[in-house]
Amino acid sequence: MEDNRKLYLELLKNTLIDLHRSNLTEYRPVKGKKINNFFNISFKIAKLFRKDQLTVCEKVNFNSEDRINGNDWPLYADSMIGYKRLSNIQDCLEQVIANKIDGDLIETGVWRGGAVIFMKAILKSYDVNDKIVWCADSFEGLPKPNAEKYKADENDKFYSFEELSVSENIVKQNFIKYNLLDDKVKFLKGWFKDTLPNAPFEKLCLLRLDGDMYESTMDGLKYLYPKLSIGGFVIVDDWGSVPSCQLAVNDYRKKHNITEEIIKIDNDGVYWKKTK
Fold first, then answer.
1. What backbone phi and psi angles, to 5 degrees, belong to 222?
2. Quick check: 163 pLDDT over 90?
3. Residue 208's closest CA among 125, 99, 27, 85?
4. Residue 216: which of 234, 195, 200 has the closest Cα?
5. Antiparallel, parallel or unpaired: β 57-61 and 25-29
6. What is the chain's alpha carbon radius of gyration, rounded to the nearest angstrom?
7. Is 76 exposed, middle or buried (0-12, 13-18, 19+ CB in 10 A)?
8. Which structural domains are found in the chain, ordered by start?
9. What is the pTM for the complete model shown?
């Protein structure tokens, strides 16, 4: 049984990040200014493409090292956090299960659902049925920065990234694809400032923050960290890549005298265990 569980979770990690295709050349449809510039070159070419429902693509080269470390945005994978950060979820959750830590699991900012799908898979592989996996997201992308209230988000542009807008239905379909959608998977749809203050759970054993902004990170900590059980874990996905996210974490920890060691996962992600 233990060997089968290990094989299943290892295969799922590799599948969620599309590791088996990470050394292949792929083609991404060109959008925005790039496609407009192309069509402006020749009206006839533009007419031909639109008539035959064709599009222009750019060649994209990936590699397994970037995929393992979560340093790329894969075209088709269900997660962009990479192998190491998925393994971190497994390490933390296996400790939670072994130590019988109370509470549910949540990710704030789920994208295509890869991380929460993996959380559910781990619970199912250990036959844990008393924990809910919460998927918190606007499912419309990121909010525009509130620079008056959160100065650190002043120049943030993530709200304009279409790639970050993934619908709730797509995430649900991705759960179904892995046969992992059941009544222990719940969705909190909306901006974090609206949904997290009254989130319908009392305890958490795992809190994963992937909000890409100061405001989103601070909302996750402010409303959810007090619900994290002693012995539970908080994981911060954007620590190394988004300075405003790191600032939010440092500000919250300083204000609440949180001194547990912050441990690096890879160049981006960090985590710590709540001990008091």
1. -60, -40
2. no
3. 85
4. 195
5. antiparallel
6. 20
7. exposed
8. 25-61 (no CATH), 82-273 (3.40.50.150)
9. 0.90
